[in-house]
Amino acid sequence: MRILLVEDDPLLGDGLRVGLGQEGYTVDWIRDGQAARLALETGSYGLVVLDIGLPRLSGLELLRALRAQGNGVPVLILTARDAVADRVAGLDGGADDYMIKPFDLDELAARIRALLRRRMGRASPVLRHGELALDPAAHRVTLAGEAVELSPREFALLQALLDNAGRVLSRAQLEESLYGWGEEVESNAVEVHVHHLRRKLGPELIRTVRGVGYTIDRP
Known about the structure:
With 219 residues, the protein is of the alpha/beta class. It has 2 domains: 2-120, Response regulator (Rossmann fold, 3-Layer(aba) Sandwich); 127-215, Winged helix-like DNA-binding domain superfamily/Winged helix DNA-binding domain (Arc Repressor Mutant, subunit A, Orthogonal Bundle). Helices cover 42% and strands 20% of the residues. It has helices at 10-22, 33-42, 59-68, 84-92, 105-120, 152-163, 171-178, 189-201; strands at residues 2-6, 26-30, 47-50, 75-79, 97-100, 127-129, 132-135, 140-143, 146-148, 207-209, 213-215. The relative contact order is 0.12.
């Protein structure tokens, strides 16, 4: 899952980029509102973590512009502004959640997972497909009750396909979900990850739609 982090504090931004990366997310970090607006107009993100006090364009202005354009990407405001009026303004402006700094990274990660579940229309935190189960919080995959070791990108690819079960995802969509800015992507990277997943989880799980992409059929 690709996340846009909009935070102008260099220490906090770098810490969040690393921390969320360790949670398995691909993180693009931007430090001002105008650049974030451009990124959201040209890129595809699963979620936005947004500070309010940003240079060039405030977080609230960015949020209102985003919603005015009909972009429904989940937005979690992360700010030091803790007044009730600020929270009301953020939530009424289109935010899906609002957290106050300082914060605990585990709580932030849990709130992100909850927002993503809501976006996908899932009630359960665990993704299941027959005897396969993927737990995003524990970063754990089991098949018929047995743990399966996956690399971070194999895990992310499997989660993307399970989140979109029944839909075909193109190679470009999967690459955008798995790789951030500045990361070199081998031309056959997605195919290699799919090959490894089939070897570990069975050849029938992921179906190739020739000339289109990959899908996991609904159970």
